[in-house]
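WARN retry 2 of 3 for item q-0093 after timeout on previous attempt; input resubmitted unchanged.
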Amino acid sequence: MFNTRKLAISAGLFFGLTLQGASSVWAEDISGPAVAEPNGKFSIEGGIYGNQADFLGLGSFTLPLGETLGLQIDGAAGMRQNKFLGGAGAHLFLRDPSTYLLGAYGSAHTWDGINVYRAAVEAELYMGDVTLTGLGGLESYDYPTMSGGMIVLNQDNSHFFGQVDLNFYATDNLMLSAGFHYLDQVPLAALAAEYKIEDSNVSLFANALIGDSQINQANVGIRIYTGTAIMNSLRKTHRTRDPQNYVPVFHNLALAAPVPAGVCGDGALDAGEQCDDGNTVGGDGCASNCQTESCGNGVLDVGEQCDDGNTTSGDGCDFQCNTENIIN
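OK item q-0093 returned
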């Protein structure tokens, strides 16, 4: 079981250590085009998700499309709870690095046979040493019908999702973040921190989600920015280059053993058992007694009953078995 007390202690220690090591001050003029230059970022992170291992690699490539417009393509690949996770996303956005970002976002991710599709709007508001970020829209979960020989009970569904985060730059190179996320119909508290090593393209980060026994997450990682980010602070890098690379959350599949076909010990089909026409009770109203005769080839053999109660030996009845009406 995930221990939220340990998470809080670990996050506090991380924040304290990075605060002690940070030394930059706010001195940069953050202005210019929506995207300063073609650029990328790549990260590796690991930790726990639910109560099992989580390991992800994320990458993004961002392009300027004029003075106020930008495009970013995201990718994700890794192992979550020993199962492959992969996906991609795209952002098309308007931005003034001194004031705001407003854009459209879409993505598709897969894990353990579950496919998640998202369409959303995203926004960022820049206020000195504070950035307010938001993402909201529709997410659709597509579940498999079987997994490992078991029936999947989860039903396909589409619903609203959203998240809001308040990012505070304690220094130009240190960001501390707290937020509220509503993902896969679960409310979650979110914590994050990122510290960019001064005069480098490298940052260290931690993130956490708290609120659901399956989704509780705590990861730490390293991120590398490309381009001229070496000359910029973390705050300027965030506001002149790339939006966030979003990855949805996943609940474990709910599984049940399949009902054995044709088992009806009392001679009558029960709910969930198969009729001899291949359908199931409840779905098609089939509630006839189990067929006791054997006619696997679809034709009544000598000694088997016709649906008029006679046998094939006396009246030459040899038509196809009527699986709904055969008399036992």
